[in-house]
Amino acid sequence: MLPENPTLNQVREFFAKDEFATKATGCTVVEAAEGHAICEMPLERIHYNAQGGVMGGAIFTLADFCLAIACNVNEQPTVSVSNTIEFLSTAKGDKLIAECTVDKSGRKLGFYTVDVSDNTGRKVARMTATCYR
After folding, report:
1. Per residue in 3-54, pLDDT tens?
2. If DSSP codes are grouped into helix, strand and coil, which group holds residue 36?
3. What is the helix (H) or strand (E) element at residue 98, kind and residue range?
4. Alpha-carbon distance 62 to 83, whole Å?
5. What is the DSSP-derived secondary structure letter of residue 2?
6. How many CA atoms lie within 13 A of 29 on its CB side?
7. Looking at residue 47, what DSSP letter applies?
8. Does the model's pTM come out above 0.85?
9. Which residues contact 95 (CB under 8 A, 6 or more apart)?
């Protein structure tokens, strides 16, 4: 569990245990606060599918990682129970950036939106999630 009002380094250290996101795909935490997070993922050859686009699973991994941070800082341990993602455009840059914001945070349920764009400003995907504490 994270301490109350954790520093960015404490958040990074805690979520480094999400090894698929951090080691396999290269996700990093840029900002972390209660109900809000920004994460990035550099795009490498491994992230692309056979048709040359970024794999949906790679985009989802970044969005899910960002969600985990936003819904767990200064909250009881929280997990997602339902996610919906829409892929809006093909990524053109060399990095993806996810920003998660809380829509409503209740005692047992939280509702969040994660917007994913590339570093050219192009909107790539939007994920909505319902989380349980």
Report:
1. 999 999 999 999 999 999 999 999 999 999 999 999 999 999 999 999 999 9
2. strand
3. strand 95-105
4. 13
5. P
6. 25
7. G
8. yes
9. 40, 41, 42, 43, 118, 119
